[in-house]
Amino acid sequence: MSRRLWTRAPGPRLQPTIALAAEPEEEILGEGCLSLPGANLPVSRPGFAVCHGYNQFGEPIKVAGTGTLARCLQHETDHVNGIVMEDHLTAAERRDIHRQHKKVAKQYPSSWPA
Ligand SMILES: [Zn+2]
């Protein structure tokens, strides 16, 4: 059994899965990632998401959200599935986000994100 986990307040989500509407309404909002601090680009994602998983006690939990919360649920669950924000970008957008990051990278410790 694989172990997948992400944590953010109000607690961990173990084995998280995302449920999206069959025909989700997409929102285009600026999005960044702690892996590329200081950079962000508009990314299209469904505006509503439900994350199912388990808390630290093994109890099933569900978190639903719209807007920024929906975006965070999808972004973090993508990470535990090996998907990064760049996978949602075109090649030109990937070059752009790396350029943005390089401009400010020296402002962050080399151990970032620790
Ligand atoms: Zn990220």
Description:
The chain has 114 residues and is of the alpha+beta class. It is globular, with a radius of gyration of 15 Å. The model has no long low-confidence stretch (mean pLDDT 87). The chain is built from two helices and six strands; from the N terminus they run E-E-E-E-E-E-H-H. Zinc ion binds at residues 33-35, 75, 79, 85.
Bound molecules: zinc ion
Mean pLDDT: 87
| Residue share in helix | 10-25%
State the shape: globular
Q: Judging by the overall fold, what is the CATH architecture? A: Alpha-Beta Complex
Oligomeric composition of the shown chains: single chain
Percent of residues in beta strands?
A: 35-45%
Strand order of the largest sheet: 1-2-5-6
Radius of gyration: 15 Å
Order of helices and strands: EEEEEEHH
Provide the low-confidence segments as ranges.
none
Distance between the termini: 27 Å
What is the class in the CATH system? Answer: Alpha Beta
Spell out the blueprint of helices and strands.
Layout: E1 5-8, E2 11-19, E3 26-32, E4 40-46, E5 48-54, E6 60-66, H1 67-80, H2 91-104
Antiparallel strand pairs: 1-2, 2-5, 3-4, 5-6
Residues 33-35, 75, 79, 85 line the site of zinc ion.
Please supply descriptive tags for the structure shown above.
Peptide_deformylase; hydrolase; about 110 residues; binds zinc ion; alpha+beta; two-stranded antiparallel sheet; Peptide Deformylase; globular
